[in-house]
Design the sequence.
C-alpha cells in the first residue's frame, strides 16, 4: 500500500459527512478499518460510503432485511409474521430511490475482506454462496477473487483452516450473516435482488451502475 491508500480520521469523517466522534465509533464497531491511531484504510471508507444513502435512512434488522429481499424476489417471508410483513411491503411500495433500499438492507450481513494463499481460493469458493452476477451482465470475478455469503458460525473455521488473513484491500470478500442460512442459500441462489444489492455497493462504477439499475427496475416492478 502507498500513502494514497490511507486517510486520516478527520478526512474520513469529512468524506462521510459525519463527526469525528461518529467516525471513531465506526472504527470501534469494525465498519471502518484503522491501521494506526487516527489513520484509516481508504478502501474501507469508500466501501462504507457506497453502502450508505446520503441521509438518515434507518436500516432494518438482519431478519427483516432478508425478509424484504424475499418479498422483492416474489417469495414469502414467513419468519416476519403478518404485521411486520405488511409494514415491510408498505415501505417497499413507497421506495423509489435504490439508495434507500441499499441502506435499509445493509445489515443483512457484515462485510469482511481477506487475503489467502491461491491454493485456498477453490476451497473457499466451494463453501461460500455467490450470487449470480451473470444475471446482471457482470462476468465472474477473477480466479483469485471470491465474493460471497458465509454463515457466521462457519467463519472462524474458514479463517483457521484456509489461512485467511484480514486485509481491507484483499480480494476475498465474505458477507457474514447470522440469519437462517438455509433461507440465505435459497435467496442467494435464486434471487437477482441479492446480486444487485451486492453489485450496487461495489467500488467499480460499472458494476455499481448495473446493480443500481437492476434495483431501480425491481422497485418499479414491485410498485
Sequence:
Amino acid at each position: 500500500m502507498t500513502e494514497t491508500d490511507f486517510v486520516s480520521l478527520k478526512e474520513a469523517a469529512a468524506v462521510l459527512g459525519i463527526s469525528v466522534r461518529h467516525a471513531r465509533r465506526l472504527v470501534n464497531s469494525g465498519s471502518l478499518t484503522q491501521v494506526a491511531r487516527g489513520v484509516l484504510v481508504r478502501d474501507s471508507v469508500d466501501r462504507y460510503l457506497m453502502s450508505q444513502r446520503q441521509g438518515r435512512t434507518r436500516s432494518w434488522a438482519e431478519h427483516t432485511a432478508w425478509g424484504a429481499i424475499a418479498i422483492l424476489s416474489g417469495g414469502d417471508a414467513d419468519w416476519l409474521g403478518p404485521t411486520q410483513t405488511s409494514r415491510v411491503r408498505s415501505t417497499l411500495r413507497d421506495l423509489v430511490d435504490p439508495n434507500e433500499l441499499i441502506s435499509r438492507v445493509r445489515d443483512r450481513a457484515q462485510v469482511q475482506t481477506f487475503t489467502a494463499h491461491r491454493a485456498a481460493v477453490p476451497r473457499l469458493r466451494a463453501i461460500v454462496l455467490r450470487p449470480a452476477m451473470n444475471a446482471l451482465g457482470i462476468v465472474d470475478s477473477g480466479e483469485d477473487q471470491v465474493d460471497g455469503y458465509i454463515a457466521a458460525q462457519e467463519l472462524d473455521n474458514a479463517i483457521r483452516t484456509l489461512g485467511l488473513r484480514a486485509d481491507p484491500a484483499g480480494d476475498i470478500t465474505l458477507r457474514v450473516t447470522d440469519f437462517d442460512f438455509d433461507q440465505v442459500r435459497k435467496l442467494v441462489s435464486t434471487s437477482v435482488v441479492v446480486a444487485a444489492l451486492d453489485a450496487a455497493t461495489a467500488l467499480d462504477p460499472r458494476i455499481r451502475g448495473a446493480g443500481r439499475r437492476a434495483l431501480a427496475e425491481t422497485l418499479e416492478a414491485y410498485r
Q: What stands out?
A: The radius of gyration is 17 Å. Residues 109-202 form one domain. The longest strand covers residues 110-115.
